Amino acid sequence: GQSLEQPSEVTAVEGAIVQINCTYQTSGFYGLSWYQQHDGGAPTFLSYNALDGLEETGRFSSFLSRSDSYGYLLLQELQMKDSASYFCAVNSDTNAGKSTFGDGTTLTVKP
Amino acid sequence: DTEVTQTPKHLVMGMTNKKSLKCEQHMGHRAMYWYKQKAKKPPELMFVYSYEKLSINESVPSRFSPECPNSSLLNLHLHALQPEDSALYLCASSQERGGAETQYFGPGTRLLVL
Q1: Per the CB < 8 Å rule, is B98 touching A97?
Q2: Residues A95, A49, A103, A44: what is their CA dihedral angle, to the nearest 10 degrees?
Q3: Nearest CB neighbour to A30, from listed B33, B100, B103
Q4: A25 in helix, strand or coil?
Q5: Which residues have a Cβ under 8 Å from the Cβ of A45 and sit 6 or more positions away?
Q6: What is the pLDDT, as a whole number, of residue A27?
Q7: What would the pLDDT profile of B71-107 be if each residue is shown by its tens digit?
Q8: Which residue in A61, A39, A30 sits closest to A107, CA to CA?
Q9: For every residue of chain B, which 3-state class applies, written as one string?
Q10: Which chain B residues are Cβ-neighbours of A44 within 8 angstroms?
Q11: CB contact, 8 Å: B40 with chain A?
C-alpha cells in the first residue's frame, strides 16, 4: 500500500519562512507533487519533484530525497494569502498513474 | 488555456433526484478525473478516464455514473444519492494518465444532498 505523512497544522508570521514536511511509503515511485488549496477553492498545482534536489519557483521551493522517502515544501517571505491547506501527493506505478494525497497541512499566517 | 471548468458551482438535490455534473477542458489533455472531497480532508479519487475510456473505478457506488462523451468533456451522473454524499466534487485533467503528470483541477461543484 501507500501512505503519506505530513503535519496537520503549521503557524507562522508574515515575512517568515516555513517548511512543510512530507514522508511517504510506496513502491515504484515516480514523483512527489505539492498542491495548495484555499478554503472553498480547488487544489492548485505548486510543484513536482521526480529527482533528488531542490526545485525553486518564486517564493516556493520543493525538495525531494528519494533515498529517504522524504520531501518538503518551503515557503519564503510568507504573506497572509499563503494561509491555506497544502497537500503532498505521490505518483507511483503501483497506483496506475493516480495521485495519492496526504491528509494536508493547514498553514496559518499571522500578522 | 490552463482552465478546467465545472458546472454547476452549487447543487442541492433530494435523494430521489437525478442530476449531472459537467466538466470541460480544452488543453488537449487525454486523462480526466473525478474526485470527492469532504471538508478538511484530501481529495479522494473516484474515477479516471484515459483516452475516453474508464481506466480506474475506485469501487464507487453505482449511484455515481461517469461518462466521457469526448476527449474534452466528462460528466458525472447522480441518482438516488445519500446525505453522506454531500461534498465538493472536483474534476481534474492531465496530459496523460501516468506517473509524472501534473493535474489541473476545476473549481468544483459543491453538492448538498437533502
Answers
A1: yes
A2: -100
A3: B100
A4: strand
A5: A33, A34, A35, B102, B103, B104, B105
A6: 82
A7: 999 999 999 999 999 999 999 998 876 555 688 999 9
A8: A39
A9: CCCEEEECCEEEECCCCEEEEEEEECCCCCEEEEEEECCCCCCEEEEEEECCEEEEECCCCCCEEEEEEECCEEEEEEECCCHHHCEEEEEEEECCCCCCCCCEECCCEEEEEC
A10: 105
A11: yes
Work out the angle at residue A67's Cα, subtended by the Cα atoms of residues A75 and B104, and round it to the nearest 5 degrees. 45
Mutate to test the interface with B, among A32, A99, A100 (most CBs of B within 10 A): A99
Would you say A80 and A14 are in contact if contact means Cβ atoms under 8 Å apart?
A: yes
Q: β-pairing, B44-50 with B31-37?
A: antiparallel
